[in-house]
Write a structure and sequence with these properties.
- It is a single chain.
- The protein is α+β, with helices and mostly antiparallel strands and about 775 residues long.
- It is about 50% helix and about 20% strand.
- It contains 27 helices and 26 strands.
- Strand 20 and strand 21 form a beta hairpin.
């Protein structure tokens, strides 16, 4: 069974479709339902981003997906690949710009025509002879042309046996206009000298010919068109952060090419840059792509990507990231990643994936929207029948029924979640906080314990040798020659620190034979014919039956008590030395841990270091002694997280190394430092692009703020409809006011979401 699942997953593909013609959340729900009915297809349609993310098996072609969407009454296109020499441009963004322009045109024309109709209908003193016919002439273009998108969508939905919020608008506006037209043509409402009083509450008069509703038909159309225009503007604004992220990259680059007289600079479009090219970055220019500095030293401003205001000093061998700004001297950089593989592109992809996803609260809203429209139409008919059966006139019954149709449109419900998610994830990207998916928001609310990997997270991860203590009869250079050569084959930060120190001390490092890494305990190998070991004292004693001299034990104990790490060195079956290394604590760690406590989280320090070193670090950053878990092997980090979870804790994990990946995946919420490995980042839920631990509380605050905004939006959207529907059904809501209130509710939800753009980090 497992093999079958794996094969299916291997044969599936992902595609992102740009959807056209959606006007509300129920449209998105219909498309999603149709796509998910296809065998093996999993689809998520986002109304705010106007995109569908689809996973489908190999036997289904993308043309079949497009055909299914079109059969539902909408359009679907595949994003066009960007030209090699042009920056990518989102076709859905062009569509949003065009949509906003079209709504603006309809709004201006409709408002100009509606204003005099409203004035004549609401102010009896302005009702000159035959004013009602002038009103008809002005209102007709608004109802027919201004509301055309709603009529067209309603007709398309009718042909497919469905109803959406546009159906409610179209039916309500059309009913008011047709009623008025009938009254003007066939009753005394069309006679010269007709006058109509304006009442804030609907009239309960039995005189069905006393009122026409041209001002309702025109004004409701104008209000809703205005709401759609502001929605289009707000949706465009909510995606501004992602567009800004995509636009950060350089558009062209000066590469070095060989010529007859040596190397010379050639400026080429960024799309033509390939891995291995050497390019020049002058002061003030953006780094074209991810790479390694070959020559030159400078300070690089990475604030656009990480939110960090302090430039980072770089020199030969240091890595630089595309889109950062060279604030100092001239650099020559070798490109290591280009195009979609760069950190900037990966950040944009993570943000867009998160925006296209759906939180559980949004799925609830989608389910409500899918059944809401038919229920509202039924309520409107019941309202009409109820008023007539109660003996009220046709005017009162009709007014209440139309008010129910208009006030009930749950546009705000459909916008509540995706707009907040768009703004929240976009703001996070600007601050160097990448939220992988909307489901992560719920996790941040429930977390009560946060496990912090020490090296590279709480500390800098840059180890340095502080002392070399040789046994009696041994010299420091002799120890460094053996230990440095052995550790030179290791990738561990401690091993690199010892090898670098040996080289700086003048040791000529020999090659290592039979090198073995013993999983967090130490390393072994043969150096110049000597069987050498370097690692924990407990490992040397238990696995190799070696005994450490008392003199070395004393200096090791002192080092551990000061928070430093002793590395024991032995060869030919004898313990020869202790090399003391230390890792400096990040300046921001104590503040970050204090902020995590303020968020109600219990910090736990996790490390493979000895207990004394771990306790010393914990004391300096404000972690309780009982919350330190030391001498943990990489494979056991998952077990630590599991034990905490089994004890009832909801665990977040912050890490940066390959050995943290499994624990990050096991945790209820995984936060990877962006300065860490790709494996750790892939396994996490949140990525902190900066290496500053203060980004962790900022990320949790932003995620919680986004979730609060979503829930606030949903509350007001639900409360609005729940409160307004009974008022409309009881005849206490003028259709004119209902239309304005419905449009305002959508604008309110969007404005509330846009407040997240003002989220400010503590750092």
């Amino acid at each position: 069974m497992t093999t079958h699942v794996d094969e299916t997953q291997q044969q599936s593909s992902d595609v992102e479709l740009v959807i056209g013609g959606m006007t509300c959340a129920s449209c998105a729900a219909r498309i999603e339902k149709k796509l998910n009915k296809m065998p093996g297809v999993t689809a998520s349609v986002n109304f705010a981003t106007e995109k569908a993310k689809v996973t489908f098996p190999s036997e289904i072609d993308t043309a079949d997906l497009v055909a299914t969407v079109e059969a539902t009454g909408y359009t679907a296109t595949l994003p066009a690949p960007p030209a090699a020499d042009q920056p990518s441009e989102d076709p859905s963004q062009r569509a949003k710009d065009a949509e906003a322009a079209a709504w603006w045109q309809r709004l201006v024309v409709s408002a100009l025509l509606t204003a005099p109709v409203l004035a004549m209908s609401m102010v009896p003193a302005l009702q000159f002879d035959n004013w009602q016919w002038i009103s008809l002439t002005l209102a007709a273009p608004v109802v027919v042309w201004g509301a055309l998108p709603f009529h067209r969508a309603a007709w398309t939905n009718l042909r497919h046996g469905a109803a959406t919020m546009d159906t409610l608008i179209s039916v309500g506006v059309s009913a008011a206009f047709i009623w008025s037209l009938w009254a003007l043509l066939f009753t005394h409402a069309g006679t010269t000298g007709m006058r109509m009083p304006f009442e804030l509450l609907p009239s309960r008069s039995n005189d069905s010919e006393a009122h026409i509703y041209l001002e309702v038909a025109a004004a409701v159309t104008t209000f809703i068109v205005a709401g759609r225009y502001f929605e289009a503007r707000a949706k465009r604004t909510s995606g501004a952060a992602l567009r800004a992220l995509l636009d950060m990259g350089a558009k062209d680059v000066a590469v070095l090419r060989d010529g007859p007289t040596g190397q010379h600079e050639v400026r080429i479009p960024i799309g033509q840059l390939v891995v291995g090219d050497h390019f020049v970055v002058r002061p003030g220019e953006k780094v074209a792509t991810d790479g390694a500095v070959e020559t030159g030293t400078s300070a690089v401003d990475a604030s656009m990507l990480t939110g960090e205001s302090v430039p980072v000093e770089v020199g030969p061998g240091d890595a630089v990231v595309g889109a950062t700004v060279n604030a100092g001297g001239r650099l020559v950089v070798r490109a290591t990643r280009v195009g979609a593989d760069t950190q900037l592109a990966q950040m944009a992809r993570l943000v867009e994936d998160a925006q296209n996803g759906k939180a559980e609260v949004q799925r609830l809203a989608d389910r409500v929207s899918a059944v809401f429209v038919p229920i509202v139409i039924g309520l409107s008919l019941l309202t009409l029948a109820g008023w007539l059966l109660a003996g009220h006139g046709a005017t009162a019954a009709f007014t209440a029924a139309v008010a129910v149709l208009i006030i009930a449109c749950p546009c705000a419900l459909g916008l509540a979640t995706p707009t907040a998610l768009l703004v929240g994830t976009g703001r996070g990207a600007q601050l160097g906080i990448l939220i992988k998916g909307p489901q992560i928001l719920e996790s941040t609310r429930r977390v009560d314990t946060i496990v912090l990997d020490k090296t590279g997270t709480v500390t800098t991860g840059h180890m340095g040798v502080t002392a070399v203590h040789a046994a009696e009869g041994m010299s420091g250079p002799e120890v460094l020659a053996i230990a440095g050569a052995l550790e030179n084959a290791s990738e561990h930060p401690i091993g690199r620190a010892i090898a670098a120190h040996a080289t700086e001390a003048g040791s000529d490092l020999s090659d290592v034979e039979s090198f073995t890494n013993h999983g967090g305990n130490g390393v072994s190998g043969v150096v110049d014919g000597h069987a050498a070991l370097a690692g924990r004292r407990s490992w040397l004693e238990s696995e190799w039956a070696l005994t450490a001299p008392e003199q070395l034990r004393a200096v090791a104990d002192v080092a551990e008590s000061e928070g430093r790490t002793p590395i024991w060195v032995a060869w030919d079956g004898v313990v020869r030395a202790v090399i003391v290394v230390s890792d400096t604590i990040k300046d921001s760690s104590a503040q970050a841990i204090a902020e995590l406590r303020d968020l109600g989280l219990r910090p736990v320090l996790l490390t493979g270091d000895n207990a004394r070193a771990a306790q010393a670090v914990a004391a300096q950053v404000g972690i309780a002694a009982q919350d330190v878990v030391a001498e943990v092997l990489p494979a056991d980090k998952v077990d630590v997280v599991k034990r905490l979870q089994e004890g009832g804790a909801v665990v977040a994990m912050v890490g940066d190394g390959v050995n943290d990946a499994a624990a990050l995946a096991q945790a209820d919420l995984g936060l990877a430092m962006g300065t860490g490995t790709d494996v750790a980042i892939e396994a996490s839920d949140l990525t902190l692009v900066t290496g500053d631990l203060r980004a962790a509380p900022d990320a949790i605050k932003l995620a919680r703020a986004t979730l609060r905004t979503i829930k606030g939006n949903l509350f007001w959207a639900f409360a609005y409809n729940v409160a307004a529907l009974p008022l409309a059904a009881l005849g206490l809501l003028n259709p004119l006011i209902a239309g304005a209130a419905m449009a305002f509710s959508s604008v309110f939800v969007l404005s509330n979401s846009l407040r997240l753009r003002g989220f400010t980090p503590t750092r």
